[in-house]
Every structure is written in structure tokens, then in C-alpha cells.
Design brief:
Layout (H helix, E strand, L loop, with lengths): L2 H10 L5 H8 L4 E4 L32 H12 L6 E6 L19 H10 L2 E5 L19 H25 L3 E5 L4 E2 L7 H14 L6 E6 L10 E2 L3 H11 L2 E5 L13 H5 L5 E5 L15 H12 L6 E5 L8 H20 L3 H9 L3 H11 L4 H11 L7
Parallel strand pairs: 1-2, 1-10, 2-3, 4-6, 6-8, 8-9, 9-10
Antiparallel strand pairs: 5-7
Length: 391
Amino acid sequence: MSMYDLAKEQYAEIGIDTELALLTMDVIPVSMHCWQGDDVKGFEGIGEPGSAMRGAGGYPGAARNADELRSMIDEAFTLIPGNARLNLHAIYGDVKDVERDRIEPAHFRAWMDWARDRGLYLDFNPTLFSHPKSSQGLTLTHPDKAIRDFWIEHCKRCREIAANFSVEQDNLSVVNLWIADGFKDVPVDTLTPRRRLEESLDTIYAEEKKVIDAVESKLFGIGVESYTVGSHEFYMGYAMKNGLALCLDAGHFHPTETISAKISAVSMYVNRLLLHVSRPVRWDSDHVILLDDELVAIAKEIIRCQLLDRVHIGLDYFDGSIDRVSAWAVGMRNMRKALLLALLEPFPTLREAEWEFNFTQRLVLSEELKAMPWTAIWNEYCDRASVPAIL
């Protein structure tokens, strides 16, 4: 009898069908972020990324162009089991010397062809940083209407590009909007920039597109430590009011906050959630995700709350101090491992114990689960996907 068969029997004793868990794993997409491959530099040829987006380290092998990046992604996917998507930023197309308010679907033709040949779906992001018109720390909230209009046009064109993806791949592309707008020191007028942001967003989203639009908040960033226009409260209200998806980034809150604690509450009022799964170290430092307690908690909340049809999982980190293909592989595999652990949890049994105030049973079973042979299930999953079980 194989290790998997033994584990399958052991999980069956607590009411878990491992075959169903493996089938479910294959229908959960995880969107892998392209920017780990080059440390968020992009291919515009206008210089280094801004300080708030700088990847630490100088490990050799960063992609220098889109062909190299695609080759690296191909290599990473040979190590990653399961249903994957690819998340692009606007600076990664054939966009050298093309201003951001002039990008078109044609500039991403090579990505669309590459993705189609691999049966891969594409997601998208406007890039509102690392640009001369973002050098003052304001974009969609800038007092100068001409600068606001430049970025509004960029975002509108990004939605059009993503809508083109949606049609070609017959699957909705997720378009996430994040801006770093804010102030280093405490402003006296916190309301006017938010009114400008609302006006800019209303213009961007005025025309319905065949995409899933998401907005992403942040607590602070380098250079905007005291005030961020797009706060969690602002974007949650805007998403609720306008029927958009709300993006929760694991590194965009106070260090004592976790997005796993927010998922069930937010899901009651927002129809769709986008998760940017990252690992902050004291701040939004975007480290490769580990199989730690918070990652498992995020996965368990998705499964326990039955949100698979409403939550879109994307990764968001960039570490230039290690091999970039390995960084992708480790992070994507850890996200999948966390999802597997969530699917192997006898949630109905634990919930019943909790509802009956039998906290002893809840604690005992929760702790016993940690020693269950889940790695045998993972090894089987990898074997069926023809990827290595151990890197």
C-alpha cells in the first residue's frame, strides 16, 4: 500500500475525502505575478523603479526583456502544480518609448499569443509608479488636472487591454488598481485628495468593460508615511458603492493586522475579493511567502467561508536577493500547500464542536490535524501534475 493510500484511509476516518480535495485543488486558480522576474523594473527603458517599489538585492539573472521573462516563467511553471494564471503590469508589454497613456492591446500581442499557446489566463494592472509624472508622489489625486488626466487615460487603456484579454481567453481578466498617492508628513487637508480620487475613479470606471475591476488600499509607503489617499476605509466604501472587487494585500495594513481576520467580514458586503498574498517583514517588504500560520489562515478562511467563486488569489512579492525562478516556485507551491491543508480540514466537525461550546474537542482535533500525513497527499498531487514533490 502506498503512502498516499495510507494517508487517504487516515483522513477518511475524520471524514475527509482526499480525492475530492485533489480535484478541488485543480479548479482553484492562483495568479502568479510577473514582476518577481525582474524586480519591478519593466521594459519601458525609462530607468530604475521608484524607491517604494525597489526590490532588494542584486542576485544575477533578472529578466532584461519580455522574451527572457517569459522563458523564466515557463521554467517556473515546470515546478508548480495546479491551475495558474499570470498577472501582468502595464510596464511589461512591448512598450519601450511608448507613453503610458498611449498603450494599446497590440503592445501585449506577444503575451496573448504566448498565454494562448499554454492555455494560460492573463490578469492585468495599471502601473502608476516609477514615472516622471508620479515623481511628486501623486497621480490620480494630483492638483494638476493635466497630470490626473494622464493617469486616468492610462487606467482606461489598461481596462481596454484587459477586456481584450477577457475576450481572447474567454475568461474574465482581473484588473487591479493601486496607487501610492500620499504625503510624507501630516497634511492639513485629508479630504480634498480623496474627493479627487473619487472623481478620477468615477471617470475610469464610467464605461463598463468585460473585466473584473478591483481597487487596492495601503496603510503607508516609503515617502508617504503619514497619509495615504487610498486607505482601506476609502476603497472598501468605494468598492461597496460601485460594485467593484476589493483587494486585500497582506502587507498593506498595520503590522499587527492580518488579512485572514478580514476576509469573512468584508465578504458580507463586497461581492468579490482579490487577495494579494505577500509576506511583510515589519512593513510592506514583499518577501517570498512562507508556509506560515497566516498563509494557512488565509487559505482556511477562503475554504471555510465557501468563497472559492468570489475570491481571486494572486501573489505579490519581489525579492532580488535570491534566484527569481525559485522565488516564484516556492511561493506558488506554498500557496497551494496552504490550500491543500485547508481542504483537508474537517470543518463541519470543528464547527459543530464550536457551536456546542465543546472547545475541548475543537482544540484537540485542531492540534491533531497538525500531525496528519498531509505531505503524502501533497506528494500525490505533485506526482499527478508531473512536477517534483520536493524542489
